[in-house]
């Protein structure tokens, strides 16, 4: 969805290759890069290599932070980054707020529909077994709320909302009591966010028995992830010098990361309930990655290396949905069957790499023919 806004409305003067590349880098890990890393870690007998591969292939079980825990919020962050370039262009062109907000609402609804399809709603086993929440639904909610705020409020108000949400979410989880656990409990079963999920959702609608990582209450701080991207996108679109933009993103990333880590002893970094400290830590790394990609690609002009990621980033929703519907692994297995038998120890790595290669070739075909999914 997010890339479609930029595709639909951008011009050579407003489109930043670094944003497409960063989106593609992010999606690479979602649709198979994690499997490649996990296979490398499985093959390696060196603790140092295993320590690196687990960072990019597996989430923390509960509290704490790994690189892989940044992948989901990074995509939502990029949604926010694109807002000043997509919706901002329409505002500058004189489109009415009502028309813009209508488009925002429709796009969010379509993303939610995609999310339900991804969750298997078409394989219907009764409403008690439909998972209504999920990755795309959270992306849609963050996009919707950040889009509304961008269109209807000033930057100062957006910053105030950002801070208030983080503080209020912390206060809610710290002070709201959970039967049998009291208040201020941040365990899987004892935190207030998961408790609300268990009260309002059926067991068959939950991702985990103790709650849903994209559930009801934890939707609230996800707005801040999209807003942080919005702030970064507005900064990139400004008339400031390119190196000043890079420095600003780096400073913002360091400050966000520092605030999140400083808050973590009081409010732990937990992805599965999207704690405020998690928003800031993941947001800090997202800002630093955006600064790096922008500096390397759009400031220094080193663009050729980013082509594989741009191909993915220009059709990120396409490959996210296609990977759920089409078995790219089976296609890879058809071509790699003999090699797998010849190199059984390397089979996992061959299959993971093969599946990603097939996915990329599919996207490259679409890219060359200028076919992009527009939501």
Short key terms for the protein model shown above:
375 residues, mainly alpha, 15 helices, disordered N terminus
Structure description:
The chain has 375 residues and is mainly α. 68% of the residues lie in helices and 0% in strands. The chain has 15 helices and no strands. It starts with a helix and ends in a 7-residue tail after the last helix.
Question: Percent helix among the residues?
Answer: 55-70%
Based on CA inertia axes, which overall geometry fits? Answer: globular
Instruction: Please report the number of helical segments.
Output: 15
Please count the beta strands (DSSP E, at least 2 residues each): 0
Class from secondary-structure proportions: mainly alpha
Element order, helices and strands? HHHHHHHHHHHHHHH
Kindly report how far apart the N and C termini lie.
5 Å
Roughly what is the average pLDDT, rounded to an integer?
A: 93
Rg over CA atoms: 21 Å
Structural domain count: 1
Query: Into which percentage range does the β-strand content fall?
Result: under 5%
The biggest beta sheet, please? none
Low-confidence stretches: 1-13
């Amino acid at each position: 969805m997010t890339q479609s806004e930029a595709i639909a409305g951008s011009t050579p003067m407003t489109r930043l290759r670094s944003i497409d590349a960063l989106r593609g880098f992010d999606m690479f890990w979602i649709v198979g890069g994690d499997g490649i890393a996990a296979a490398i870690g499985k093959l390696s007998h060196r603790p140092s290599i295993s320590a690196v591969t687990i960072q990019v292939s597996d989430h923390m079980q509960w509290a704490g932070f790994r690189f892989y825990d940044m992948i989901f919020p990074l995509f939502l962050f990029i949604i926010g980054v694109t807002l000043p370039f997509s919706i901002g262009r329409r505002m500058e062109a004189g489109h009415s707020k009502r028309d813009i907000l209508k488009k925002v609402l429709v796009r969010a609804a379509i993303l939610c529909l995609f999310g339900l399809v991804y969750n298997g709603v078409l394989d219907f086993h009764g409403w008690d077994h439909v998972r209504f929440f999920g990755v795309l639904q959270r992306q849609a909610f963050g996009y919707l709320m950040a889009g509304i705020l961008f269109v209807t409020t000033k930057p100062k108000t957006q910053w105030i909302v950002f801070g208030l949400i983080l503080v209020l979410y912390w206060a809610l989880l710290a002070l709201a009591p959970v039967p049998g656990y009291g208040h201020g409990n941040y365990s899987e079963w004892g935190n207030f966010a998961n408790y609300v999920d268990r009260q309002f959702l059926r067991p068959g609608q939950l991702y985990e028995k103790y709650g849903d990582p994209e559930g009801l209450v934890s939707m609230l701080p996800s707005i801040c992830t999209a807003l942080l991207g919005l702030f970064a996108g507005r900064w990139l679109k400004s008339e400031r010098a390119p190196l000043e933009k890079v420095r600003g993103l780096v400073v913002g990333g360091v400050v966000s990361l520092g605030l999140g880590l400083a808050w973590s002893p009081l409010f732990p970094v937990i992805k599965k309930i999207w704690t405020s400290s998690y928003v800031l830590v993941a947001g800090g790394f997202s800002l630093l990655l955006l600064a790096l990609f922008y500096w390397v690609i759009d400031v220094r002009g080193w663009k050729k290396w980013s082509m594989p990621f741009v191909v993915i980033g220009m059709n990120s929703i396409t490959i996210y949905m296609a990977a759920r519907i089409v078995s790219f692994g089976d296609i890879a297995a058809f071509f790699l069957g003999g090699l797998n038998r010849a190199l059984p120890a390397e089979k996992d790595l061959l299959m993971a790499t093969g599946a990603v290669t097939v996915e990329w070739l599919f996207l490259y075909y679409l890219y060359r023919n200028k076919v992009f999914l527009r939501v």
